[in-house]
């Protein structure tokens, strides 16, 4: 089941879409060995335990190593299934600028399970190890969704046995991967509360989206921003244009979508049809009079200088720097009540978690700066995604490297960590209602105090596990 990286021509896209249907579907036995391409081949990060011990946490919080190398390496994205298992996308093909991507390597999807509920994964399954240029993963509609720019793929697994039922289906293509700022490529698969599959795209990777074979004049253009896809109606929409490189989003308790960004402002509120400010370039619509700005009332670096001057700890007093990755609006009850509805995002150069308090202001919102938390002393810490688990804890993916997204020094592929951050001792998750073939049981979980259950229940209802007409549209 090979998902080849493809050039941007429509002809090659069609040819490779056909080839993808002709290859096998089992986990490959010849998985290429990931290698490190940084200048010092002997360099290695602190041990996972030492990295966890070096985190500065608020009183009452604790951090555990849920998983680490060699069980997980280069984690780039995660998602949960209704059985409480964490699915993780590993990306080995991302490379330094001289290569962009090493297509002699492959990417992998792993499933982690904590069967004894001690905060440490004790079971690991490989779902597929034959992807390339993998940026994101999500489950639903009888299978697994992978974003492998320039394609959105669907791997059917109707019986949920963790083995793909057949070859990958190319659902969308046209997610262009830039020659230079290739770290802006499409990412961020998440089911929205409306039943659509949402994703993100950076400004430097403008694309033209559509099903394979769609004529160019019928494709949907995107130049950075948020897009969504309806799996039943086969419709793709671009909800906004602009920003620089969004790599995190979430919905609040009212269904409002917020997303995180780098360089030209970090916090944005999605308004369908909006044209947001970009770091450079003209708006795709020449009729746009002015573009909307971010909603935060502050910056995490000194804007009197260049944004690139905020690296290497120079902006720690302001929040850590210009680059933000991953976003979570905490909506669970495992942490103390004062943390509920706070917005959390990982600050790459500051090696910390920035916190925002969202306040309604007029017809929109404003983000107020709160004290940073979860500061990492590990110089290799590269937090890349975070989210809430079934136990109400936060789970954080650590890419674990000395470089950053521009990768001028190479890539350290043989390290990676997943941390669990909890308050006190989390209760064992009760997943019984999610397993019942009963729509009423699933409906009871909607508006659960832990939004994880709410979202899993909505997804299963949309998958057809509830009463007739329950599918979201």
Description:
With 473 residues, the chain is mainly beta. The chain has one domain: Neuraminidase. Helix content is 9%, strand content 31%. The chain has helices at residues 10-20, 48-53, 432-435, 439-445, 451-465; strands at residues 61-68, 75-80, 86-90, 107-113, 123-131, 136-139, 143-148, 151-156, 169-173, 187-191, 197-201, 207-209, 220-222, 225-230, 235-238, 240-241, 248-251, 257-260, 267-269, 274-275, 324-329, 342-347, 352-361, 364-373, 383-388, 394-398, 417-423. Strand 2 and strand 3 (86-90) form a beta hairpin. Helix 4 (439-445) packs antiparallel against helix 5 (451-465). The relative contact order is 0.14.
Layout: helices, strands, pairs:
Layout: H1 10-20, H2 48-53, E1 61-68, E2 75-80, E3 86-90, E4 107-113, E5 123-131, E6 136-139, E7 143-148, E8 151-156, E9 169-173, E10 187-191, E11 197-201, E12 207-209, E13 220-222, E14 225-230, E15 235-238, E16 240-241, E17 248-251, E18 257-260, E19 267-269, E20 274-275, E21 324-329, E22 342-347, E23 352-361, E24 364-373, E25 383-388, E26 394-398, E27 417-423, H3 432-435, H4 439-445, H5 451-465
Parallel strand pairs: 16-20
Antiparallel strand pairs: 1-27, 2-3, 3-4, 4-5, 6-7, 7-8, 8-9, 10-11, 11-14, 12-13, 14-15, 17-18, 18-19, 21-22, 22-23, 23-24, 25-26, 26-27
In summary, what is this structure?
Helix content is 9%, strand content 31%. The protein is mostly beta strands and 473 residues long.
